[in-house]
Amino acid sequence: MARPLDPVSAPAAPASVWPLDSFALHIKRTLTLAFPVVLARAGMVGIFTADTIMVGHYGAGELAFLALGIAIQSVFLLMSIGLLQGTMILASQAYGASDFRAAGAAWRAGLYHAVLLGIVFGIICALGEPLLLAIGQSPELAAGGGGVSLAFGLSMPGLLIYICSSYFLESIQRPRVGMYIMAAANLLNIALNGFFIYGLAGWSEPMGAVGAAVATALTRWFFAAAILAYIFSMVWREGEDPFGLRVKLLRWWAEARRLGASTGRRLRAQGTGMAVMMALDAAAFQTLILMAGYLGEKELAAYHVVVNAMILVLMMAIGCSSATSVRVGNAIGRDDAPNMRRAGWVGIGLGACFVLPFALLALILPGGVAALYTSDPAVIEIARTTFLVAGIVLVVDGAVATTIGALRGAGDVWPTMIRFIGSFWLVGVPTGYVMAFEMGFGAPGLLMGLGSAIYIAFALLIFRFRKVAHMPLKRV
């Protein structure tokens, strides 16, 4: 079995047995785990970024279709990702306690949930056009966005299978697998985008935004197959089966269902709060995107460009957040309170540092960044002003992401969710509406509302982690 990055190969010991590691050692261990996770998470958003850039140069109208299609799937996707984070919590704490069978059981239970959620939410995505019409979008935008949503929905099970499996591999200190798979997936997606978005003479007709969604759907099934192939090959490659993967194929799904009723209860207990938090967070984000749609096609396209760029940058902080969750969970599994606290604080600081250079870039060259996404002068001008707001928000947003990761690793779900979501719905969305419509700031005003929520959430969550870090440790 691969050598772990943290001292978790021995059974859990009393906290007094574990030495307090230096900040330098914590930074090194977090970066060692976070770097491939950051690249893997950035790779996932990189697929959407390539879609946005390639569709943006195809036409501003198609970019608006893509934004609405993504908005429909985002709420359901993030709800599913939140639930599947229970896999990370259970597997990382089990791995920290050297309970490898329990870590494997967490993955199989998560996989069962991933398939079922993917089917249900894929069907919902297929209803994108009537959903967009119901919330007041124009028939043209609803038809274009609905076609994009349908294509995305066809690949929802594959995406969730990959996400659940990557959480498991990260929890058992094998984060590089997802990094390599995502690198290949991005190259495949760009090639498929060229074929489906623009078409090839004599081979295919241009499909615009729908073509980008079809390319992404095919890419999702590719990386799902790749990560499953790696996990199931671990047994014969390493000659041992500590995670209990050696199950006959015909019995495997039945055992996964059984785990869905046992380990799955614990997974849902931890994941439900994260699912609610991420769903409501996504709903707040997408509500602001829908508001941008009411401002007009150009405002919607510009706001989508800025939000996409922010999410791409924040993948570094989110990757650090996942690494922080794993390291906090490992420390709790081995009953190591001092290093649990230090791992959390180091992760929070690194999350802010990761995004700082990009925040400065957004402040210094906002127009240049916007021009990477689109050649439409009106969209670039709106995005330029909006990027200035993003530069003020990004660093704190990175710290918020890693603070949530530290709290997630500790199993603190519902209190975190209430603080985070309350900030967005009670402050962010209303403020965004007032700034954009009542005060006339347009797309930049929507992001001002988002920024106000992020600053409030940061203050609330930092105080929460400080409290949780001094509570008695408890494995969930």
TrEMBL record:
Pfam families attached to this UniProt entry: MatE
Keywords: Membrane, Transmembrane, Transmembrane helix, Transport
Signal sequence, start to end: none
Residue ranges of the TM segments: 33-58, 64-90, 111-135, 141-165, 177-201, 207-232, 275-295, 301-323, 343-365, 385-406, 418-437, 443-465
Single GO molecular function: xenobiotic transmembrane transporter activity
Coiled coil: none
Gene Ontology cellular component list: plasma membrane
Name of the protein this chain belongs to: Multidrug resistance protein
Organism: Tepidicaulis marinus
